[in-house]
Amino acid sequence: MQRSTEEIRLIDYAIELWRGRHIVFFSTIVGAVVAAFVVLLTPKEYTARCEFLQQNTSADLSPRIASLASLAGISLPATDQVEVLPASLYENIVCSEPFLRQLIHYPLRFAHQQRDFTIVEYLGEDDGREGLREWIKSVEARREPVAVEDRLTAEEYDAIKYLRSRIAVEYDVADGYVLLEVTLPDAVASAHLTEKVVQDLEQRVIELKVERVRSNMLFIERRYDEARERFDSLQAARADYLDANQHTTRNSAKATFERIDAEYMLAKSIYEQLAMQLEQARIRVKEQTPVLSIFSPVTIPFKPSRPRKMIIFITFVALGFIVGASIIFVRTTIAELRGYHLPAPAADDAAKSH
Questions:
Q1: Which residue did the predictor score with more confidence, 152 or 301?
Q2: In the β-sheet with 46-56, what is the strand arrangement from edge to edge?
Q3: Of 3, 24, 17, which is closest to residue 345 (Cα–Cα)?
Q4: What are phi and psi of 116, to 5 degrees?
Q5: What DSSP assignment string belongs to 171-206?
Q6: Is 232 helix (H, G, I), strand (E, B) or coil?
Q7: H, E, C per residue of 8-37
Q8: Which of 118, 251, 264, 340 is deepest in the core (most CB within 10 A)?
Q9: Contact partners, residue 256, CB within 8 Å, separation at least 6
Q10: Cα(128)–Cα(76) distance, rounded to whole angstroms?
Q11: Is the N-terminal amide bond of 77 cis, ω within 30° of 0?
């Protein structure tokens, strides 16, 4: 009984909805008109994309270097498996303040501008396009404290916040590729900035990966230079002493030569060991250096990514339909609460026939 009552109520509501179809139609048309105004008034934005993979050279480099070193009589130790930097850290790197602070001062090319603009200069341009947005950002800048320890200006602070909302980094755990997207109101500027972000990101990833092994290589290189200078000086002193005492038979001269020769042999041994360690350290740096293999390069976007016209149109049209149906539902509910029942369509037809 309850089910039949609910079905009757739904049928009655469907009938009332059909009778008030002019209201639904009008509200739907209003939603479509509002959607058209929103699409026309919303500024266009373009998204440039780049997809890449992180790779290391250790898999191909180590066997070749080891075979060449064995031919030269040098035994290289087995290297450990090199792990790539987790792609989940890329977003933290890109959104970090030091990284963005360099980008906001990088000159970008714009399609319809006579000169290049930095992000700070672009946001400071008063051309009437983003007056409300600039006012909101100025209010937020007054509310939020500026990083005094880094001595950021208010313009730099706003530019960093603006870029942080315009750069997106996504990574696929299964396939291992990274997607970088940059959205700006200009197509050329978005592509130019995307290329810059990829270059700086690769440099930053290399610095993070090879910082320890590079510092070790530099330390060995300094010790190697010192050992080479000492070896060269002892070698020259040994040669000079041999030239000066070539035909002598004095025991004191022989003792002095043995002392110089012992120091020379020790310096030579240290020099050769450091030379081998330096080559191993250089190989280790090459192994640890990651390479961002770009398989989807940056291109200038042809179509704007925002506003999404179809989504806006469907949303506002659906909202207009819902508003019109809600008006009819509220009107029917109020009529039922007052005890007034609208005549059925059949009764209307009968009355018209009479």
A1: 301
A2: 167-171, 178-184, 46-56, 290-296
A3: 17
A4: -80, 150
A5: E-TTT--EEEEEEESSHHHHHHHHHHHHHHHHHHHH
A6: helix
A7: HHHHHHHHHHHHCHHHHHHHHHHHHHHHHH
A8: 264
A9: 241
A10: 66
A11: no
> What is the Cα gyration radius of the chain?
38
Instruction: For the beta carbon of residue 111, count every other beta carbon within 10 angstroms.
Output: 10
**Global confidence as pTM:** 0.60
Are 48 and 190 in contact by the 8 Å Cβ rule? The answer is: yes
Long-range contacts from 121-124, C-beta under 8 angstroms, 24+ separation:
123/155, 123/158, 123/159, 123/162, 124/155
User: In the structure encoding, which two tokens stand for residue 91, read together?
Assistant: 């977003």
**What burial class does residue 259 get, using C-beta atoms within 10 Å of its C-beta: 0-12 exposed, 13-18 middle, 19+ buried?**
exposed
Q: Are 179 and 283 in contact (CB under 8 A)?
A: no
Residue with tokens 């005094």: 148
User: Which two structure tokens, joined as six digits, stand for 84?
Assistant: 């790539």
Tens digit of each residue's pLDDT (9 = 90 or more) over 21-57: 888 888 889 888 888 888 888 788 898 988 888 765 5
Share of the chain above pLDDT 70, in %: 73
- Strands (E) across the chain are located at 46-56, 167-171, 178-184, 290-296
In sign, the C-alpha dihedral spanning 112, 52, 119, 138 is positive
Query: What CA–CA distance (Å, rounded) separates 56 from 44?
Result: 39
Please answer whether residues 169 and 180 qualify as being in contact, where contact means their C-beta atoms are separated by less than 8 angstroms. Answer: yes
- Tens of pLDDT, residues 266-284: 998 999 899 898 888 888 8
- Which tokens hold the place of 36? 């058209």
* Both structure tokens of 105: 């001062």
Which tokens is 192 given?
A: 């130019």
